[in-house]
Amino acid sequence: MGSLHKFNPDDLFLYAVTDSGMNKKWSRSIKDAVKAAIEGGATIVQLREKDTETREFLEAAKACMEICRSSGVPLLINDRIDVALACNADGVHVGQSDMPAWEVRELLGPGKIIGVSCKTPAQAEQAWKDGADYIGCGGVFPTTTKANNPTLGFEGLKTVCLASKLPVVAIGGINASNAGSVMELGFPNLKGVAVVSALFDRECVTTETRRLRSMLMNPVSRS
């Protein structure tokens, strides 16, 4: 079944990535977290629920799909191709240790969005060859969500952006205080930032999303 949302690289502008631990910490359902992020201006959502049971995840994904479809915001599922197929999500995001993008494409078909996490030019090249639509590059800054994840910094991000034939979204430790500086790097294929803690490990997801969006749209005005 094809996606109702055709991929547009501009959708990567403010990429909200959920986290089951943060939702539990703040006593939020996945659905409520996604709804709040979209209300704040998130342009794409990824459900990354590593600690959620399959049935619960699927039910939440179906509920989130309804919200995203009504808002015109694409919804991707992290890694779980079975869940993506079952809820007819707009696509899947995979890491280097997950199923290769070309196999994901064979399962999902040509109409779905596929993203791949990349740290090196070689990985970015492979993602392009495998038929991915975009790559996620990071961690740009240190992050608590992936404690053992090496930090690339601006130089690492620059190297991947310059080598990539695909649109790039930066991820890793990005928040309202540094998101503007990431986008000011000015690489043509750097289309946005992906954010976890700075949106979902906060009391009000909508307020934080709105604040981050404002910083991205007006980076020179940040304090």
Automatic annotation (TrEMBL):
Pathway: Cofactor biosynthesis; thiamine diphosphate biosynthesis; thiamine phosphate from 4-amino-2-methyl-5-diphosphomethylpyrimidine and 4-methyl-5-(2-phosphoethyl)-thiazole: step 1/1. It catalyses: 2-[(2R,5Z)-2-carboxy-4-methylthiazol-5(2H)-ylidene]ethyl phosphate + 4-amino-2-methyl-5-(diphosphooxymethyl)pyrimidine + 2 H(+) = thiamine phosphate + CO2 + diphosphate; 2-(2-carboxy-4-methylthiazol-5-yl)ethyl phosphate + 4-amino-2-methyl-5-(diphosphooxymethyl)pyrimidine + 2 H(+) = thiamine phosphate + CO2 + diphosphate; 4-methyl-5-(2-phosphooxyethyl)-thiazole + 4-amino-2-methyl-5-(diphosphooxymethyl)pyrimidine + H(+) = thiamine phosphate + diphosphate. One of its GO terms (cellular component) is chloroplast. NCBIfam families: thiE. Its cofactor is Mg(2+). One of its GO terms (biological process) is thiamine diphosphate biosynthetic process. It comes from the Eukaryota. This is thiamine phosphate synthase. It is an enzyme of class 2 (transferase). One of its GO terms (molecular function) is metal ion binding. Pfam families: TMP-TENI. Residues 14-199 form the Thiamine phosphate synthase/TenI domain. InterPro entries: Aldolase_TIM (IPR013785), ThiamineP_synth_sf (IPR036206), ThiamineP_synth_TenI (IPR022998), TMP_synthase (IPR034291).
